[in-house]
Amino acid sequence: MSTPLSTPGAARTDGSPLRIGTLVPLTPPGWVEAGRHLLAGLELAVREINDAGGIGGTGGAVGIGGAGGRPLELVVRDTAADPRRAAAAVEELAGLGVAALAGEYHSVVARAAAARADALGLPYLCSSAVLDALTDEPTDRVARLAPAQSHGWRIYADFLLAAGHRRVAVAAQPSVYWASGTRILRDRLAPHGGTVIPLDMGELTPTAVCDALVERRATALLLLVGHPEPAVPLVRAVRRDRRLAEILIGAPAGQPEFATWASALGEDGAAIPFLRYLPEHVGPRGARVGTALRERLGEAPSFVAFEGYDTVTVLADLLRTHGTDRAGVTTSWPHVDVEGTRGRIRFSRTAGIGVWQWAWPPVQVVDRDPAAPERFRVLHTGPA
């Protein structure tokens, strides 16, 4: 006989699983590798919490649960980078009685999920999406761990300026996310005499991009495009053009973080600076989690995996200390004060951001070392 579902949002006091709805891109055209890392972090944290006794028990490790608590359960839905699919998944998950929503990597998809969660009264902790306008209007139901795009991309622009780049070309595809990034870069560079040169990848071939870079005297090319297409052929074309031997290629959105970048491009994929959200030196908690994630993934964990782990850490703390009903979670964001893998996590209201925001996670500009592409070099560190 099937067990009836609980009333959506209602608190339970028995030992039934406490469900967290989880959105991740697990199939194309979503960035599958990012989704896999995000889910690995989420699942690892759930496993550790449940091994310690779940939520609401006694005697658990690090103050999270113990004997007799309710286990956490992820109810995972694949978004495949589709906003409509994500919105439908949020509707379904809300009906299944999940206590909260977590995850998502793609900004446009997370925006659709946030809008639907807000409308349904479902608290949502966004793990990895950075678009500033995650919601149209300010809301108490949505919080975010990743830094806002304006924060991270301004740091990237500062790195470009410090390296002497004033003529910066952006090869971009049509997207709210890429358009927002271009605007942030332009606004940051302009007061210092910098110029952003737009190159429309809907019209230009990689060869035409190379010609435009020479003609416009660009010293840097930023890839505001999808991976592997057209990012990989564009990098190859630029690397093989002798006229562009001195140009800097950059990928602020973080494509070179993942192993598929190095496997596709080899040496051509090195020395391409990108943003990642890790401290230069992790503490004991981050080191322990990093080791466990490496074992789980079979490769070095990306910052996205740490974001997944921290997401569950925050939600578990809220559910333990403020109750398991949705209203309790929604009102508790400003009370979060928990040690994550990358620093102390607290949420606040930030100018121009309509959701509760961790301000800020650590931000680095890094690249892959040409001498050893599996190793990363820290080139620039942003302010906290």
Characterization of this structure:
With 384 residues, the chain is an alpha/beta fold. It has helices at 32-51, 83-95, 107-120, 149-162, 176-189, 206-215, 231-239, 259-265, 284-297, 303-322, 326-330; strands at residues 18-24, 58-59, 66-67, 72-78, 100-103, 124-126, 142-144, 167-172, 195-200, 220-224, 248-250, 274-276, 338-339, 344-345, 347-348, 356-358, 364-369, 372-381. Strand 5 (100-103), helix 3 and strand 6 form a beta-alpha-beta unit. Helix 2 packs parallel to helix 3 (107-120). The longest helix has 20 residues, at 32-51. The termini are far apart. Mean pLDDT is 93; it is low at 1-12 and 58-66.
Count of helix runs: 11
* Number of separate strands: 18
Whole-Å distance between the termini? 53 Å
- The helix/strand order is EHEEEHEHEEHEHEHEHEHEHHHEEEEEE
Which term fits the overall shape? globular
Spatial extent as radius of gyration: 21 Å
